[in-house]
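Regression check, fructose -6-phosphate case 279:
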Amino acid sequence: MRSPVRVLELAGASVLVYGDAPSACQAAAERIAETTRAAVANKGRAVLGLATGATPEPVYARLVAMHREGDLSFANVVTYNLDEYYPISPLDPRSYRAYMHEHLFAHVDIPSNQTHMLDGTVPEASVADHSAEFDRWIANDGGLDLQLLGLGRNGHIGFNEPSDTPVADSLKLPTRLVDLHHVTLASAARDFGDESRVIPRALTLGVASILSARAILILAFGPHKAEPVARSLEGPMTSRVPGSFLQAVSGKVTWVLDEAAAQGLAVRSTVASAVKTAR
Ligand code: F6R
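Current build output:
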């Protein structure tokens, strides 16, 4: 098991800082594998909330390697993905369904009927029903044992984008169709070739479903994540920085950072003084 170079307790969360992103990804994969094995041993199956994007790619590669080495089975894993562009075909290589197939599902023993993605092909008139149904499926499956998250450069989680909505209302947001924020469109240019070609709307798991997970593992690597990390952990809870909503659920959130993403944190020292300084 990799050891973090620093461990902080901030805003009710454990913050594990690793020397580099590969070590952090290995630690994250080990944490997901442990949660999976424990849930399968205790109740017969594990329910995982999964993220896409650049950040978790090496984590999925590590999970695939564990599976190939015979250390991890997905036969009793049920997955729910955070988001999907709208509208989009699951066959479109830019869809998150295609991403999950490429990075995880095609390489492990998960039955395809246990992988759930928001459907970018439902007619717009049915989007609200489909979104509500997705939240119900998660609840009927007993809730998420672990939600894996990345953090947008603008602080978004899933595609819950910065807004001026009062925090109390944001915390209740259900799964729904959203307009993507201009920073998200710029970041997605990587996958679409050009910002003007990015699909500007998406379906996203709501803040309420994310926060209901029994454990939340959020990953952020690189200097471009330093500001949203610091604002999420050390700033006030605000809808301008959706990562700060994780402050609402104490004791079940683990941040896994590399040194570059942690560099904006004012608190850099021991767990004891970090707690003191943060409050
Ligand atoms: C992806 C998702 C997004 C990303 C975030 C970070 O399913 O929900 O919130 O986690 O935009 O993306 P990367 O990892 O590409 O920096």
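Comparison notes: The pocket of fructose -6-phosphate is lined by residues 51-55, 82-83, 150-152, 156-159 (CB under 6 Å). Residues 272-279 have pLDDT under 50 and may be disordered. No diff flagged against the previous build.
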